[in-house]
Amino acid sequence: MLVRGTRTGAAAVRGRSPARPRKAVTLPATATMSSSVQRTSRAARYAAASARAALARPARYAVAPRRHLAALTKAPGRTALYDPAHERDNCGVGLVADINKNPSRVILTDCNEMLVRMSHRGGCGCDPQSGDGAGMLVAMPDAFMRKHSGFELPAQGDYAVAMCFLPQDEANAERARKSLERASRQRGLGILGWRVLETDNSDLGEAPLASEPRVEQLFLTKKQGWDARKFDQELYRAQAVAQLENFQIMSDEGVGEDAVLYINSMSPHQITYKGQLTPEQVLGYFSGDLLRDDFHTHLALVHSRFSTNTFPSWSRAQPLRQMCHNGEINTLRGNKNWMRAREGLLKSPYLGDDTAKLLPVTSDEMSDSGNFDGVLQLLTNESAMSLPEAAMIMVPEAWQDNDGLTDEKKAFYEYHSCLMEPWDGPALIAFTDSNKWIGATLDRNGLRPARYYETHDGRVLVSSEVGVVPWVKPEEIKVRSRLEPGKMFLVDLEEGRIIPDDEIKNRVASQKPYQEWLSTHTKYLSDWASQQKPQELVFDDETTARRLVMHGYTTETMETLLAPMAIGGKEGFGSMGNDAALACLSAEPRPVSDYFKQLFAQVTNPPIDPIREELVMSLVCPVGPESNLLDAGENNCARLVVEHPVLTPEELAALQDDRSRDGWSSATVDATFARDGADQPAPSPEMFGQGSDSALERALADLCERAARAVQGSYGRDGAAIIVLSDALAGPDRLPIPTLLAVGAVHQHLLKTGQRGKAALFADCGDVKEVHDVALAVGFGADGVCPRVAYEALAKLRHDGLIHAKMRNDIPSPDDVPDDAEIRKAYRKALAKGLLKVMSKMGISTLQSYKGAQIFEALGLHPDVVETCFSGTPSRIGGASFDAIQRDVVALHDHAWSGSKRQTDPAGAWTGVNHEDVPQLPNPGQFHYRNGGEVHLNTPMGMVSLQAATKSNSRDTFLSYCREVDDVNAKSTLRGVLRWRPDVLDKSSVRLEDVEPAKEIVKRFVTGAMSLGSISRESHEALAVAMNTLGGKSNTGEGGEDPVRFGDNRRSSIKQVASGRFGVTSHYLANSDQIQIKMAQGAKPGEGGELPGFKVSDYIAECRGTTPGVGLISPPPHHDIYSIEDLAQLIHDLKCANPEGEVSVKLVSEVGVGVIAAGVAKAKADHIVVSGGDGGTGAAAWTGIKCAGLPWELGIAETQQTLVLNDLRDRVRLQTDGQLKTPRDICIAAALGAEEYALSTGPLIALGCIMMRKCHLNTCPVGIATQDPELRAKFEGQPEHVINFFFLLAEEMRRTLQSLGMTSMDELVGAAGDVLEVDPAKLRSNGRPDKAMGLDLAPLLQSARELNPTAGYRHTQLQDHELGIKADNELMDAAHSLIETYAKGGEAEPIVIERETNNLDRTLGTMLSAKVSKACGKPGLPDDAVRIKLEGSSGQSLGFALAPGITIEVVGDANDGCGKGLSGGRVIVRPNLTQLEGGHFIPSENVIVGNVACYGATAGEAFFRGVGGERFCVRNSGALAVVEGVGDHGCEYMTGGRMVCLGKTGRNFAAGMSGGIAYVLDPDRVFADKCNMGMVELGPVEGEDIDELKGYIEKHVAATESTVGADLLADWDNSVSKFVRVMPTDYKAVLEKMKAEEALEATA
Ligand code: SF4
């Protein structure tokens, strides 16, 4: 059977009609043709593209027709928990250029098509006519301007155009014009006049219309005598000054953003046309220019934006003035702070003191891209740096451990690291000056896709996807390639050629003698330290114990935190989340670090992998005085390099030792204050929460003054280049200032006074003990810390025998216990690892970028504390003041010293204490419940009551459980201090029988995502049975599920898809009701999961597609989710994999989660989970469990508010989880916005869990969290107990509804402050009312309904996934009878379907696969039963989860995600034969498939005749893939299957590979340097492997006609010796063991 199909392009999307009448434009005949039309005349092509752009809407994230338009037409400012500062955007980027600078319409046409065809990478809000922003930067159309501008123009290059957005109001517009004219005249520019652009807004939605600016151009001329460089510089200066001045004037008058001048571009070379437009609207909107036939350009840069909001913003659209950006700058806060810090040193060599007029360059009002563009402009105009050089400096490649770089290049990067920290985060930066340079650069991680074509006629096309200019024929293409991590694609327009990455970088790196400068001027702390004699640790039983108590050490600190670090070099693990009281509600003294939670990347920017991708990470930092960034000379690198931010005692001594400091002066500033002045009156209620003039606050102010004076120099001394804040003088008379406060306050003070760039800032401290402390100190500005007392504590641990006690199994003799130095080394190593993990969670690669980036949220601190010490850090609920913190400091101090009998010297100074009354270290039970200690939600009494209640189904017992837990809640959680409003309760007259029945309410319950592997099969199945019986849902977790369960009530309704992709097949996905994408988990947001090898039994390994006994670490979700548009793609993939199911995205609460949820809703998730950071059952390092993620109360409330503000709420169902335990908890969750509720510990306790927290050890005594057969046999849990639990909950929830006068849960959803309020009595009765009374929970209780009254506030609409227009419908029609036949056990003739394809054919073959999997089960169809032959560039995720029996063959090339989740099908991609004619195009040297091909493949085959991108075959667990070269990170985390590479590989091959085999052709023997040898060994191909490999290559040749493969086969005996076999060590051991067992069996 031959079925031919055609695919319409961007213009012709079926089944859609425009929401607003379109303007009448005669449609050329070609406009209705496929976009893969034959290339016709240039005019016809342009006409077609223009008409498409003006008239058509492609498939993208539009919604079903709306009943109303409730999006706000003006962006709200900070409102309750919504803060616009957290808005994110990701995008599609592209450029087209004629490298010979020939202007034409073709370039514009091509670029417009590129823009329109990347619409699916852009965003759309609730109104399909309102885009998130799109635009085009073009070269100056000189001929056009001469004809249409109305001015007599001088020669090209002697005039410039300022493209402006002016305020709508004419008076404000005139002021804006005057600002620009004034600034221009001041800089000597001539003014020709203003041109009003002819724009057409008839196609715009209401939001962009409401904020549409006036678009006008100011024509300016060059002053006589200036050269081109001078003209560029003066234009830049005039632009910067005009904008700053106008902004200042308008800010002073308190007007909004829309009343301010915004200059899109101001250049003699280029103009930016952009706005809050959809990609298709760009040409039509600027119709007076861009739609005219005589508008020609030699290059264009395009950008379509996907914002997480629906609010209008014209200026945030891109391209900007010199660049556009796909990605996110994760370190923006730090970059802005450091730019501010160095402003005082900035002096343009051209402008001198006037440089100050250009400052500030960065601003909180601008996006990350806007700030980046501002700095880029500054560097290129006010320093000698070229555009490529500036881009190299701002986004450096990974150079520290990169053996592939020359010494010269390394020296260049090291030198420039002394000038500026990297702007770090996933980034594809495209840049141009339209005159000499156009190019793009990719960040060191290379997470963004960037493919390019070079054509024989001298054009280059770079974009996020291939196939976006479909009329470029294969035979026109000279080179198909991609931008690699850290590399630069560059065209020199003057030379008319592409400059290879190596050439430009070598050229730039050899401009100056950087190596010489470094060796002369740069100092290394390790060199200084090596000159110090080993420092004696001050340790004795008595004073050490007192110091430990004073600095907040507990027995848990020693045993749970320090001991594992000292022994194993890594942090200790825990499990079951964090159920201890929040610091702001705790009655215990808590360190200031406990008030901070680490932020983590989710969705809009990926976390990265600090373990497997360590090669891109670095802790090395230059510190100390900076020089003028704009005038780079040899002295700029006169800085001190610190290799590890945790200093050794010797390093600290070196910093304070004049003899070894090469002339660097240092000052040690005492960070203690007098105990005498710190007595406070007993807390008085009227003072609570007010803040006060405490001794601590005064001490901080004094510390800042003294530190600043030390930097400035005083009393005739030069300023210090090194500041050490030291609390070493703390003792019986003096209190230590908490290090975090000291560092934060001094850093902020020096920033504000412009002195931070003049000195390095270190802390010599007693209270820095664990990873979180170090992460905070550095994150808030310290250049390094010396944990002086922690070193003492380690010595004490050893001295007390605890180290030996814990190592007894490995070291029988105490004499062999590591010495103090070795223990310190292990401890520092653990801190470094932990710090890398904290950085990686935020997607930050270098400590230099992380430092001062303030990537934390304060939870429960008074605004005064935040402003003084942590200015700019999110803090939403107020809390503990300096006063309250001081009370904790005093309490610890007094406990440490009050029993001491002072010994003093003759002068009265303290010299020690006697040996009596030395305090014991306290144990408040922060990690494990302790009677009388810290409050925990899971109490022994609560557990006993719950188990009794669920066994007996007794309401009374259940109520005592609820009372116990709710009482604890009041002392520990935000929800605990709320109450139902008495005025609402008073009014209720609803009868209980009128309230929604419990059997309906229980359908809202879900059990948490606990993987099969982390818990036993018995408990996993018991949960599923219980939830299926109830009508609720259980969740597979990330470990897959045994297919035998799919057909019965042991099936989990929710199938989770995590980065590990364990067991994720077409069959698995098709058997779900909901597919949940795990972006983050409560137990450890931003980290991957871990399953120790001893829990990977044969059964678990089979379910997961891994090797028994081999431990599993899931990667963070950065392989196929780099941004919001990638998440949108994955949502689309999964929806196609089960069209009847819904797709959920699991997020974790943190500031900005609402904004992310808005992006997720726009990306068409049907369901969103906002987890609390305290939930989760999995194992993780304690830092992950305790220090990341915020309470769900904040997360769900922020999400509800933000979604309603954006009118996106009714599109999604919201769920929350995280220590939900009682009916009260759940009803509060509903009131704050949640419609569904996931519980984990409650159901586990009902099944018998006794909270031993041994889940990660496989020793669970009740058979739940174990795979040990003997322990599993002890499992006694019954599904009925879980069912009882949920019904008991539901019945009490009904009573709550009744008391609130409601009859259904729907009424309660989002009621917030209408029914809830803070209970003042609970705050007053808190153990520390001085802290609790400072809380302000009003933002939490803000009713979202009031924020946007016409918007929906709960889920009422289905997302429109637009599956009806997908090509798969044709495929399914064509294969329908065949599938039916096989489903009934019959046989049918194979079919062949032929069709053209293009990049809009996304996820092709997946809906067909779902149909096959549902009809035929896991075996699918017989091999090759359906063959789909495609011609063109296939869209993303070709063949996602392709089922057995389906073959997709592409003649052309493929985009990212090809063969992802391959589930038994076959994918073939090979080049067009016409392209190969003449032999100019060598497939094995060109890229044929994008990034993450075959990611998570479980079975099947893939053959690629050409080179693959980065991350090829990541997490392959069973497929065969053959390719002719791959990028970085090939076979990462692979656990099974085979991979054959017939060409070069990138770096980090096989990182984390624990199963399967790879064969790599390596004739030059260079592969070993590219391979990560951590888990694999290399060897020759021998024995039966030889035939196996030969068979794979034969298949490849048969499928693709590969000449590389054919040549190898032709000389096979010789060829085979050129291959290397990559074999995971553990996998090899398992195979050998299996072989031995088989042999034994055979013998027996
Ligand atoms: S009883 Fe088992 S499941 Fe419960 S916390 Fe302990 S080890 Fe984990």
TrEMBL record:
Superkingdom, taxonomy of origin: Eukaryota
Q: Which cofactor does it need?
A: FMN; [3Fe-4S] cluster; FAD
Single GO BP term = glutamate biosynthetic process
Stretches for region Disordered: 1-21
Give the pathway annotation: Amino-acid biosynthesis; L-glutamate biosynthesis via GLT pathway; L-glutamate from 2-oxoglutarate and L-glutamine (ferredoxin route): step 1/1; Nitrogen metabolism; Energy metabolism; nitrogen metabolism
Q: Which UniProt keywords apply?
A: 3Fe-4S, Amino-acid biosynthesis, FAD, Flavoprotein, FMN, Glutamate biosynthesis, Glutamine amidotransferase, Iron, Iron-sulfur, Metal-binding, Oxidoreductase
An annotated Gene Ontology molecular function = 3 iron, 4 sulfur cluster binding
Q: Which Pfam families match?
A: GATase_2, Glu_syn_central, Glu_synthase, GXGXG
Recorded hits in InterPro entries, A to Z, give:
Aldolase_TIM, ET-N_metabolism_enzyme, GATase_2_dom, Glu_synth_asu_C, Glu_synth_asu_C_sf, Glu_synth_centr_N, Glu_synthdom, Ntn_hydrolases_N
User: What's the EC number here?
Assistant: 1.4.7.1
| Start and end residues of each Glutamine amidotransferase type-2 domain | 91-494
Broad EC category: oxidoreductase
Q: What's this protein's family per the entry?
A: Belongs to the glutamate synthase family.
Protein name per Swiss-Prot or TrEMBL: glutamate synthase (ferredoxin)
